[in-house]
Every structure is written in structure tokens, then in C-alpha cells.
Amino acid sequence: MFKKENKSSNPHLIEQYKIYRNKFTHLKELSKQSYFKSMFNKYNNNVKKTWQLTNNIITLKNNSKHNIPQNNRTNSKSKCEELNAFFSNVGKTISAK
User: Fold this and answer.
1) Fewer CB atoms near the end CB (10 Å): N or C, the chain?
2) What is the pTM (predicted TM-score) of this model?
């Protein structure tokens, strides 16, 4: 569906893809919650395992936010260099005018 949606400009296919994508995401989150609830119930008397699960959840969330593809890092670096070059020449440009 993803390939069809990308290649097509048919609004019906796009809408259908979005509906299934949202359903899949929702079911994935529900299954993840169910898994962690069952694991916490299983290890409710074991403090060490409980903290390991907690750290696992925190690590999963942190990794997903900071997982930047390598090609975007180089683009970011070149953008930073362009901005740096622009702002370092602002004084010269204003004084020349």
C-alpha cells in the first residue's frame, strides 16, 4: 500500500493507506503496552527486573528520538556551515552598505 500510495495521486488510495497506517500504529502501541504490563506483573516482586524493564522503556523512547540518519547529519553540518558563513559576514555586508 505504501508503494501504491507513493506512486499514485489517487485520493482514495492515499486515504485508505492513512487509515491502515493509523490502525497498524494503534495496534502496535496497544501490543507494546500489553507486553510491558504483563512483564511488570510477572516481575512485580523483583525490584531488579522491574528497574531493568523501566530502563528498557526509557532507552527505547530515547533512541527513537535521537536516531538521525547519517545523510541528515551531513546535511545539517553543511547547513550549519552556511549559516555560520552568512552570520559571520553580516557585519561586513552592513558596513559596506
Assistant:
1) C
2) 0.48
